[in-house]
Amino acid sequence: MDGRPVVSYAGDRGIFKRLESGIVSSIPTEPVEWKRSYGRTARSVYVEVEFQPFDVEALVKGRRSLIGQQVLHTYWTDCSDVDIYKTSLKDEIQAWLGTLKKTGSSSDWLIVLVETPDSRKANKLLTRTTVLDKIKQDLAGKTPERCVSIVDPTKSDSKAVESMQTFLHKFRQFFLQSYNRTLNKFEELIRSEREKRTEAGWNFCTYFLLQEQLAFVYDIMGLQEDSLVQYDELDALFTQFVLNSSVGVAPNWLSAFHTQLLDWTGFSLDRNINNRLRSKIERCDLSLLDLRNYLFSRQGSLLLQMKKEDELAKRCLAFLYNTLQEIRILEVECAEGSREVWVALCALEVLRLVKGTSLHTAALWSFLREKVLSLGKLCGLTPGNTPSSAQLHLVVSLFGGLREDMYLKLENNQKNPAERLKETLSSGSSFEKNYLEMAEIAISTYKHIGRIRSARLIGG
Questions:
Q1: Distance between CA 434 and CA 424 in Å, rounded?
Q2: Distant-in-sequence, close-in-space partners of 372: CB < 8 Å, separation ≥ 6
Q3: For 269-316, what is each residue's pLDDT tens digit?
Q4: Residues of the chain under the 70 pLDDT cut
Q5: pLDDT tens digits for 170-227?
Q6: What angle do CA 332, 336, 341 make, to 5 degrees?
Q7: 323: closest CA among 372, 298, 289, 363?
Q8: DSSP conformational letter for 253
Q9: Eight-class DSSP state of 167
Q10: Among 146, 171, 343, 379, whose Cα sits 20 to 30 Å from the Cα of 362?
Q11: b or e along 310-325 (b: 16 or more beta carbons within 10 Å of the residue's beta carbon)?
């Protein structure tokens, strides 16, 4: 999802449209210090925005949605005649500011006067009161710094570049001030909704989508750690609901996660594929594995962005054990072997991307080997056995619960997790080859980090 914040534009739209592409592309070229509220550490961020026409209805309705909400409001004009300003422009800007005040955005505005090189020179020569001076005197109140001018960059003038850079610096600062206020209000809304979690009408999926908007915003600003915190909080909240349900009355919305598992596809760390699972959350029509797959895939994608591959392997192992426990607590009906298939697919997806040799990767390879061995025994693929017709049917049924479109096709003849697991369970010889390879990697990784006893336990 595109979480870019929205800035509105009003006034002379023709003037703005002429400058829009250059401004939008230039805003994220330099970092700006973001001084956050509640004593949080200041961070250096890159700002990306999109501009939309000023829309009063969207401004009023968008308070519960961070994505698409108009954060800062700009008014554009190229008026250089004081008389024209007095007769029409002043009233137009006053009406615009009045609308902002009614909708609670009286502090989130910026008036931009676009000057031509000739008009700027004339103003300096005559030393007269300019339109910008009048706007500051008549309309700006105590914040005249929110009225700025730029030299039209489409006109050839040596001052245009310097003028644009000054404007961009001010724009970034004003935008972050407004955005900070917007985020503070939205965080208050999140806290308010979380406090209602014991009420009858509360729904985790609805709340999830609300708090995830904050994660999207932090991600696009380059604050992946802050984005990850949002998903970790959602993860912990859902886990607590599941644990509480085993010792008390479960909320009504949790009953949807008791449904039988018909799809045991693992997660994919590809963002575009993950969005398909998000649509299920929007419809509140998903299984326990759907929710867990989406949540961990977002956490994993952020860890990869931060280049924390070992942390990803560590978290994956805990995630697999935790989800298997939640399946037991919620008494979710599962087809025989489906849980082992899901674990294997998840582990293969992470180990496809994590190449290091650490305790966490060794443990993940070992857990994968264990589940693949269980599947081999279940399907009659271990050495010395011939699959029965029932076991062959079981293999077909297990493959039927996989969605191959949830995995990318890999290059250079590499196999994605679904393709590799299907190959492993296709015959006794393929099973032996793949199982021994997994066991060997687990053993060698344990040996590499000095865990000889763990390696011997696998090797028998």
A1: 6
A2: 340, 344, 424, 431, 434, 435, 438
A3: 988 887 888 999 999 999 999 999 999 999 999 999 999 999 999 999
A4: 1-3, 61-63, 118-127, 156-157, 460
A5: 999 999 999 999 999 999 999 999 999 999 899 999 999 999 999 999 998 889 999 9
A6: 90
A7: 289
A8: G
A9: H
A10: 379
A11: bbbbbbbbebbebbee
The total number of residues written for the chain in this structure:
460
The residue among 281, 295, 434, 458 whose CA lies nearest residue 362 is 458
Which residue in 48, 51, 105 sits closest to 222, CA to CA? 48
**Helix residue ranges per DSSP H, 64-157:** 82-84, 90-102, 117-126, 131-138
Q: pTM (2 decimals)?
A: 0.90
Q: Among 168, 178, 177, which Cα is nearest to 70's? A: 178
Q: Rounded to whole angstroms, how far apart are CA atoms 188 and 68?
A: 18
Residue type, 95: A
| CA distances in angstroms from 422 to 12, 17, 372, 431, listed in the order given | 61, 54, 11, 10
59-64 long-range CB contacts below 8 Å, 24 or more apart? 59/8, 59/103, 59/105, 60/103, 63/185, 63/189, 64/189, 64/210
Kindly state the DSSP code that residue 260 receives in the 8-state scheme. Answer: P
